[in-house]
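Lecture 7, part B: from sequences to assemblies.

Below are the input chains for today's worked example.
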Amino acid sequence: MQKKGPETQTQISPTEPAMRIIMRRLREIMAEPSDGQSRLDKIVRQIAGLMVAEVCSIYLKRLDGSLELFATEGLNPGAVHNTLLKRGEGLVGRCAELAVPINEPDAQNHPAFAYRPETGEEIYHSFLAVPILRGGDVLGVLTVQNRTEKEYSDEDVEVLQTTAMVLAEHLVSGSVAGVNSATEFSRAVAHVVRGQPISEGLALGHAVLHDARVVVTQFKSEDPVAESERLEVAVEELKASIDEMLEQGDLNMSGEHREVFEAYRMFAHDRGWLRRMKEAIRRGMTAEGAVERVQNDTRSRMLRQADAYWHERLKDLDALSDRLLRVLSGGARGQSPVADLPHDTILVARSMGPADLLDYDRAKLRGLVLEESGGQSHVAIVARALGIPAIGNARGVIDRVDQGNPIIVDALSGEVHIRPSTGVITAYGDKARFRARRHRKYRTLRDKPAVTKDGQRVELHINAGLEVDVPHLVESGADGIGLFRTELQFMVSSTLPRLERQVEMYSHVLDRAKTKPVVFRTLDVGGDKALPYLRQPVEENPALGWRAIRLALDRPGLMRTQVRALLRATAGRELRLLLPMVTTVGEVEMSRALIERELTLMRRRGAPGPKAMHIGAMIEVPSLLYELDTLLPRVDFLSVGSNDLLQYLFAADRNNERVSGRYDVLGAAPLRALAAIADAAKRHDRPLSLCGEMAGRPLEAMALIGLGYRSISMAPVSVGPVKSMVLSLDADALQRWLMPAVETGEGNLRARLKRFAEEQNVEI
Ligand code: PEP
Ligand code: MG
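Predicted structure of the full complex, as structure tokens:
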């Protein structure tokens, strides 16, 4: 830091060298190609260095007058964008309020000091803050801090004030933050928004905001006849555009996305909708006003319904209304207003209808981010069908993104990186290339059986649930479908799939799977898996409630129809039927009796039944662990649903982020439970598999092999990495040390399993 020198005759101010250097460095930083956040980061680093300060920070003012830490050199980097000071709070807030410098040798003991533990600033005593002023407005505060107690010199204050002035110019010109208003800084720096991966993958590109809404300005009309005609023409055009979409080549195949479109079409063709809009026109509204009025009325009615089905239908209605408004405003067939799509478009939307996604040129579409829709939304289903990486429930994304912003969609972790720094872009570019390389490698393993180094065959199956998942069987080279979650098909249908539809669906799955086995799980509904058309009581603890086999046995009509459909679909083939959420052996016996009855009925009618039938139970409820010896003689196979088994074992809701990751599946307790199941299955000579999420993680899958599992079922994308692990593993060596460790060891075995993998060069 420049110290105040003795009075001299020279014309050069003693502060000038530092000033000049700072100005030059600021100019250089502004000239470098970089984003707003990186520039701010460099600026604080430079100022700290040149002023010999241990800390330099920039706080910027937000709309509500609070101050957000935007950049720091010296304070904890994790505090950036997290530390927020209310208007007038602390010394920084005081500096902004009074718009004057604050120079405190012992800030810690100042009565106005606001301690923020996340910043780690408790070790710095001296503190100098100057306001960042422009045209009388305070845009923020620039501070420096040092450990030693000292008062900063007048020159220090002057240097910092001049720097703040220059900084203010850059802030408003947009060269630092890229915007011209202090209140919009947060739209100009890097942000990470967390959401939920709804279609797996990685994508780098530029944001295109899907602004579906056409703002209606004219509500009243004097000419109901003309308005009614306009509406009719527009509705016809809308219907034609959706019909056309359904005929498109790659959507012509059957699959649940097709059903989504059918439901959407049904809405568009709904006469009641058109009638209500015409009534509104008769009451003196324009066509646009009528669309909005009916949308609002229906909305308020539907919102009163609590279940997910109605919310999804509501989104369909919103998307269709928006589309209709675009047609009315002259948009070509409801086409998206975005003309020149970048070649690497990342679509950002609050929510959108499935058809809206198809308005965009797929060759240019790299990724999708949705603020309000989750994995079960119709648009998510279509995104998955098209293989577009997508993140849903990304709260706050719309407020942070501008058209054309660079953006990264990490639909593996669920992170959306907005305006990422060059470092992050490079890291993700590498990651994407690495994934592509790895995928190429996995493709070469596709037709190789999963056999360990010591010659033990491990069956790798996939989990599926929709017809679109079945092609993954061939693509992944898996041995079969270890778990077909039949309820998914029911969940995306707008009405209960009838017997014929179910037969068609299951036959189709079996045809596509060819000779590979498929394990169909009977409906696992209830709990968080709500069927739109099935009224269910509201339960306080749905995970512990009336669900899966409990509901099926109480309301046998649903299960009977499904079993009938499965028996018909597997005529002349093998039927593998898995019962979900079994809690007692009695439930297996009742289910068996129901199945046998259906089979007998069918045979009596002379219909050919399946050539063999295997009935299995899922081990998801801990009570069964103590009934394995009674259960096993009564089933043909077992499948461990580790997702639920762990949730019930640990009493930790699998859908509650606060608790779901708290307990490790590689802890001694779950490993012992899993070992006991493997041991019992072996004693009773019953095939055993495991189909929870853990099977898809190479380290966990390795542990399962060590416990004696020789069949596991996972998401299709996991087959490659898990196979790679199997091929590099000596199962016998693993089993020799793991089994005693599980029996005698305490606590968590993750670290030891990792060490084993590293020492033995197992690819995890
Ligand atoms: C499980 O519980 O592990 C399982 C595979 O079933 P689901 O995830 O469908 O509940
Ligand atoms: Mg389950």
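Note for the exam: Residues 191-212+344-420 form a domain with the Glucose Oxidase; domain 1 fold (CATH 3.50.30.10). Keep this in mind when comparing with the next example.
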